[in-house]
Amino acid sequence: MIAGVLTIAASISDTAGASASAAANYDVFPTFSALAPSTAEAGDTISLMASGLDPAPDRNKALLTPNGLTAALSDVDRSIGTGRFTLPAGTTTGDVGLEVNGKVARERIRLSVPSVVPNCGGIRSLFATADGG
Amino acid sequence: MATARRRLIVGFTVPSIVIAALMHATAAQASPTITVSSPPAGQPLYDLHPTITVGYTSDDPAVPLNLTTLRVTVNGFDWTGKFTIGPDSPPMRSRLTMS
After folding, report:
1. Which of A18, A34, A77, A117 sees the fewest Cβ atoms within 10 Å?
2. How many C-alpha atoms does B89 have within 13 Å on its Cβ side?
3. CATH number of the domain that A51 lies in?
4. Which of residues 57-76 of B touch A (CB under 8 A)?
5. Best of B14, B31, B34 to disrupt the A interface by mutation (most A CBs within 10 Å)?
6. Are A61 and A70 a contacting pair, CB within 8 Å?
7. What are A56-115's pLDDT values in tens digits?
8. Domain that holds residue A110
9. Which residues contact A72 (CB under 8 A, 6 or more apart)?
């Protein structure tokens, strides 16, 4: 089943021609089970495992840190429940979520993104003093 | 009042999908009724393989249900063919498991 809105409808008639019908709507949520690798940098390809993925890749989104940053999946293989996305610039370490057709999985999985802040050596050379110190 | 009863059970297997349905029709009303009774409407589904129960009835023995008119659709797709007929389970019930 694909996560999103599910509508089940049923109808039946009797032999006199009278009929009855019913319908029920549900929100179906994806299940997010794995992410690999667990440490990555911007531009890296990340694989995830989940149930309920939509076969249309762009209907599946990884929810990243900081809040509001997302990455649409680039491909999906529903037969094995996997998808991939490219980690966008600006992603920081945090818990990754999964949204499919607007429905967000309850599970979140940690992703570490190494800091790109320059080390102290870099700062020192940037502020070199006039006497060469 | 005498009541005519029929039961239907539906079960089939397709790759990675096991569908079983239990249907029961009871004649007794002036007009047929049908409900999607499980899962409860509006309930969030975290289980991607829910059991779906559909119940239907007609209590008037003189006007039985025409079971060839039964239709069950999922997001607009006709899943009726995934049902097979089996024994009754009171009070009149259908069950469909899907993945």
Report:
1. A117
2. 13
3. 2.60.40.10
4. 58, 60, 63-67, 69-76
5. B34
6. yes
7. 999 999 999 999 999 999 999 999 999 999 999 999 999 999 999 999 999 999 999 998
8. 30-126
9. A57, A58, A60, A61, A62, A85
Chain A contact present for B41, CB below 8 A: yes
Instruction: Read off the amino acid at residue B69.
Output: T
The three state secondary structure string of chain A is CCCEEEEEEEEEEECCCCEEEEEEEEEECCEEEEEECCECCCCCEEEEEEECCCCCHHHEEEEECCCCEEEECCEEECCCCEEEEECCCCCCCEEEEEEECCEECCCCEEEECCCCCCCHHHHHHHCCCCCCC
Q: Does A93 reside within a domain?
A: yes
Beta bridge partners of A60: A100
- Number of domains making up chain A: 1
Window 55-84 of A: residues touching B by CB (8 A cutoff) are none
Minimal Cα–Cα distance from A51 to chain B, Å? Answer: 8
Joined together, the tokens standing for residue B95 give 């069950």
> Is residue A64, in this structure, part of any structural domain at all?
yes
A100: in domain = yes
Question: Is residue A93 less than 8 Å (CB to CB) from chain B?
Answer: no
